[in-house]
Amino acid sequence: MEQIKNRIALLRKVMKEQGITACIIPGTDPHASEYIADHWKEREWISGFDGSAGTAVVTLDKAGLWTDSRYFLHAAEQLEGTGIELMKQGLPETLEIIPWLSSVLKPGDKVGVNAQVFSVNAYAAMKSELGMSRLELVSIDLPGKVWSDRPLIPMNPFFVFDTKYSGKSATEKLTTLRSEMKKLFADVFVISALDDIAWLFNIRGNDVDYNPVVISFALVEGEKATLFIAPEKLNSDTKKYLAAENVEVADYNKIYDALKNISPDKAVLIDGGKLNQSLFESIPTTCAIRNSMSPVFKLKSMKNEVEMNGVRRAMVKDGVALTKFFMWLENNLNSGELSEISISEKLCAFRAEEENFVGESFGTIAGYAGHGAIVHYHAVPEAEYKLKPENILLLDSGGQYLDGTTDITRTVALGTPTKEQKTDNTLVLKGHIALGMAMFPAGTRGSQLDILARKAMWDLGLNYGHGTGHGVGHFLCVHEGPQNIRMDENPIVLQPGMILSNEPGMYRTNEYGIRIENLVQAIPAQKTEFGQFLKFETLTLFPIDKQLIDFDLLDNKEIDWLNEYHQKVYDAISPRLNGQEQEWLNEKCSPYVR
Q: Is the pLDDT of residue 2 over 90?
């Protein structure tokens, strides 16, 4: 804790020298990434808090860390003795960061932020809100001035993602992108999102946890495309590949010079929700700015048939690994040795046996009993639960295969479930099936379908607080936009080729959590005199626990859906299993007959 106190003291010394009264330090990077390299973990360095969500704020005499309910206990432990106050977001008594700063600072005070880790849109909103309290926002990397032993930016070589997996070459994708740029009357497009770059140039790497991306920037112009990347990350093969695709290469940090040298009469396309403020400030002020959602963001959301065939292969592999894992879990449950962390490691080991497995697509959420009620629970050794042959387990996990990305949640009974547990689970299942069976007209948004997953619960005054579905990448980010299914309005319409999760849930605080998640793909259904209709193809292949279902609450159509789904699971997975495994899966997939 003394180390954290010393770091804060050093930061405050520099703040005084620079005339800065407060410093906001988020847990982000210059690429708006969900997972970030150690080099940019400024918030973790200054506070000691290593959770995935949180922002530290340091003034000359106070310090606070804002995080959500997932991390209240974890943060409290890590912040103890540091002098940093835990600010529990979402509680009525907790002020958000800007109102808090307005309450502790005086008009004319300066608030410093590293513009590299704030998007253009976020920076503008922050500047406006601070201005209302007559506080000035200053672009300055204060942690960078005192973090002397900062880790280097990863220099891992990247690899070419073969078109046998991607379905389209980088040249083809660039041609499509340039057509989209013309529609937006843009001459130059600045790309900073790592998954957009990985998709566009068909490259993959291992620079951050879980997402196979490559730290880089890119500029696309009418006749030229440039990848800004550390030269150490290139080898002879990747150099030849990029040259063959007519992609020029420049040093990672040369992006700033390239932006400054854009012709002043050019129209520059940026995605203000992703591009960082520091890069934006390098664009000549005479350039016309087109602030719009990245065309790549939209293009990569609609998977081609080669990508979808890969995803279907990945789902079979995932189903095989899960079958072996859950058999192992049942056989070892009574040992008293299984814990949330140990079963997560075992599941990863089973996935690793599958061909083209690269790693997990996110940190496994293994929530036993009351921990299952914490939506984005993360087990830590000092507070994890041991599993017992009672209550229920929520297991949310996924894999990265060259073929595609998976994400599945299953809730299973480890003992005899209670009537309430079966009722809750069946209500969740009813919502899952209703969404999975949906047919809807082209032009429908995810928010218009969200009610299907919730209605059975709403009818009884029940609900869940998270979204129903997020987009998923193809051997890329497990959380990918722009599409989603949630109560919040999102103007993006669902289109064929988009992959989404279907994951309604139910959470009883300190008791248990339930979530049933499959991945689905939007596909054409039928065309009538009223237009084109779409539906969902369920992609995930693993049985839903029948022990937790009250079949009296399901109608015949819902039972038919479940039986047909289980038959599909068995037909797809069983050829890859031995006799004992087939027997186990056959029992789990056996049809229910009313």
A: no
Helix count and strand count (H, E) for the chain = 19, 28
> In terms of Cα–Cα distance, which of 333, 395, 338 is closest to 366?
395
Neighbours of 61 (CB within 10 A): 8
68 pLDDT higher than 90 = no
Provide the CB-side half-sphere exposure for 252 (13 A, CA).
16
Please give the pLDDT value at position 387.
97
Q: Are 318 and 408 in contact (CB under 8 A)?
A: yes
Q: How far is CA 59 from CA 17, 81, 409, 432, 436, in A?
A: 13, 17, 42, 47, 50
Tell me the per-residue pLDDT of 282-341, one tens digit each, with 9 for 90 and over. Answer: 999 999 999 999 999 999 999 999 999 999 999 999 999 999 999 999 999 999 999 999
Give yes or no for residue 71 having a pLDDT over 80.
Answer: no
**Domains of the chain: which residue ranges?**
2-146, 159-299, 305-588
Same topology, domains 159-299 and 305-588? Answer is no
Q: Which of 377, 367, 321, 375 is nearest to 340 (CA)?
A: 367
pLDDT in tens, 253-280: 999 999 999 999 999 999 999 999 999 9
Take residue 458 and report the two structure tokens written for it: 């709403």
Q: Which of 161, 168, 218, 162 is nearest to 192 (CA)?
A: 218
Whole-angstrom Cα distance, residue 572 to residue 154?
40
Q: At which residue do the structure tokens 């970030």 appear?
A: 36
Beta bridge partners of 249: 227
Q: Return the CA Rg of the chain.
A: 25
- Tokens standing for residue 562: 């479940």
pLDDT at 460: 97
Strands 392-397 and 408-413: antiparallel
The separation between CA 480 and the C-alpha centre of its own chain, rounded to angstroms, equals 6
Fold of 159-299: Creatine Amidinohydrolase; Chain A, domain 1 (3.40.350)
Q: How far is CA 180 from CA 191, 201, 227, 297, 440, in A?
A: 14, 16, 19, 12, 27
- Indicate yes or no: pTM above 0.85: yes
Q: Would you tell me how many other CB atoms lie within 10 Å of the CB of residue 103?
A: 9
CA-CA-CA-CA dihedral for 304, 307, 310, 314, to nearest 10? -110
Please work out, in degrees rounded to the nearest 5, the angle formed at the alpha carbon of residue 46 by the alpha carbons of 191 and 478: 40
Residue 450, CA distances (Å) to 192, 302, 359, 420, 510 in order: 31, 20, 31, 24, 27
DSSP conformation class of 501: E
Q: What is the CATH number of domain 305-588?
A: 3.90.230.10
Tell me, what's the pLDDT at 52?
A: 80
CATH of domain 2-146: 3.40.350.10
What value, to the nearest 5°, has the Cα angle with vertex 260 and ends 258 and 263?
A: 90
Write the DSSP assignment of 88-123 as a string of letters: ETTSTTPPPHHHHHHHHS-TT-EEEE-GGGSBHHHH
User: Under a CB-based contact definition with an 8 Å cutoff, are residues 488 and 445 in contact?
Assistant: no
- pLDDT at residue 70 tops 70: no
3-class DSSP assignment, residue 339: strand
AA letter at 522: A
Query: pLDDT-based confidence at 193, cuts 50/70/90?
Result: very high
Beta strands in 336-455 (DSSP E): 357-360, 365-368, 392-397, 399-401, 404-405, 408-413, 439-441
The separation between the first and the last C-alpha atoms of the chain, rounded to the nearest angstrom, is 62
Evaluate the omega torsion of the peptide bond into residue 284 and state whether it is cis, within 30 degrees of 0. no
